[in-house]
Amino acid sequence: MSSSPKLLDRAGIWSYVPFNSSPRRRSIGNGLPRTSAPATNGRPWDPFAAKSSTHVVGSGSSQPTILESIQNAWMTQSRQARYIKTGGILTFIALLYLFLSGGSTPGPKNVYTPADSPTARCTTPHDPAKPLVQYAIMIDAGSTGSRIHVYKFNNCGPTPELEDEQFKMTETKPGGSGLSSYKADAEGAAKSLDVLLEVAMNTVPTDYKSCTPIAVKATAGLRLLGDDLSGKILDAVRTRLETQYPFAVVSREKGGVEIMKGEDEGVFAWITTNYLLGKIGGPDEGPTAAIFDLGGGSTQIVFQPTFKKSPHGGMPPKMEEGDHKYKLKFGGRDFELYQHSHLGYGLMSARKALHQLVLDRMHKQNPDSRAWLSKPIPNSCITPGTQKKISVEMPADHELKGEHIVVMEGPEDSIPAQCRALTEAILHKEKACNLAPCSFNGIHQPSLEKTFAKEDVYIFSYFYDRTYELGMPESFTLRELNDLTAKVCGGEKTWDAFAGLEDAIANLRERQETCLDLNFMSALLHTGYEMPIDREVKIAKKIKGNELGWCLGASLPLLEKESGWECRIREIS
């Protein structure tokens, strides 16, 4: 009887698996036969052909050896180990991300039921790539004070729909409460916005804060401080927003915290108006409205001219190139707008220019004497029978340079035509026009009568303030504006028409330059912009309950991709 082999003499598993070969480096050839298999039915052997589900044992076939079985088992275990390790690593990364992001993704979920939807309009967004609800924050850093607008939009349709707006402004202070009032105190300027940002913190839900863009746009008041001081203030504001608040601050490249250009202010106001009117952003591609904004220091005009080829020539088939041409993409449409911001032609600037003109003409009549400066100076734009003490700053290159405190005296009887002549004079219609046609002061402008004859025209800001308080309806013609001006300039004997309006007569008595204001508005629209006398205009302060101005128009682009911000990962408190 042959002796049985000792247990220790048996070949173990490790005897068949070489340690110098790593299972992680297996090539695909290790799983293929090392010798060619015989052809079957005259066909060559295909290593990628499907194996038969039934194993047939016959001549020429062989069972796998013990070594092959062990190697296959080892390879299978190694592959399983790699899968387990890979899955473990991915799970760890996912858990770590959820931990750092506060247990959820940066933004809110995107699918809702009617019971938990953040908007009553719908439960799913029109575009699955967008959230159902978005918020945007815009801070208007003006010279007299700062204002915050917190907007809520839904994406139920192809264009965001404005659902709500929260607004607050800084407290009025002597010398202003805007960023520029802090001058060298950059940190104080940045902290002055905290009271406004409380509104944003209380309005935007927690789940939305990290994906809510915020931008700060300063106006010309900050520019007057110079590049050094204004730059430090803007940097301090950005730093405070990025370190003290959870919102997504728009990048420097996209103008997140900046001094806004004049042309952008007008175009954003145009977007606001036409968006609220439903003229842009919807399925219809009808005509848009023009906007005329009259501020204190400047006035803006923006409209979309339509050029038609004339058989007799004269009118160009398209807008001339220049800074006035503004190309805009919004709501899937391309717009080619005319825009211009006339600096120095706001209402307060117009008052100063007119008073300077009055003094200049008096000086030309009395070149050798200045005694007249201490006497009442006739001014046809002051309410008849009244006097007003006015500070007039004459230009440095004028013989009367410097500040003069004078008394302006209105005429005994109404002479509104003479006042209108003064307001037309400060428009400088006679100035050379290098690129025809021009509006005033040598500025190129397509003819409103030829390129914008029938579309809606909206006038707001001081246009609204001065006419609405005197009982003017939502729309009126320039001829009717002239009639109103004549009644105001007639003095108290013609003010009976305003007796039924609250505070109207009291305001006229207190504001003795109202005749000047209305004459300037009429001259600006009719003589300056060359709008026909019977053209109808519309005044508005709000549309659909929302304030007009540039802020909404500047916020809408922030809802689109690549607008200069990314969601921030929320930190765990």
TrEMBL record:
One of its GO terms (cellular component) is Golgi membrane. Transmembrane segments: none annotated. It is a single-pass type II membrane protein. Keywords: ATP-binding, Hydrolase, Nucleotide-binding. Coiled coil: none annotated. One of its GO terms (molecular function) is ATP binding. InterPro entries: GDA1_CD39_NTPase. The active site is at E265 (proton acceptor). GO terms for biological process: nucleoside diphosphate catabolic process; protein N-linked glycosylation. The keyword Oxidoreductase does not apply. ATP binds at G296, G297, S298, T299, Q300. It comes from the Eukaryota. Its EC number is 3.6.1.42. It is found in: Golgi apparatus membrane. It holds the Pfam family GDA1_CD39. PROSITE patterns: GDA1_CD39_NTPASE. Its main location: Golgi. It is an enzyme of class 3 (hydrolase). Residues 25-44 are annotated as: Disordered. Belongs to the GDA1/CD39 NTPase family. After transfer of sugars to endogenous macromolecular acceptors, the enzyme converts nucleoside diphosphates to nucleoside monophosphates which in turn exit the Golgi lumen in a coupled antiporter reaction, allowing entry of additional nucleotide sugar from the cytosol. This is guanosine-diphosphatase.
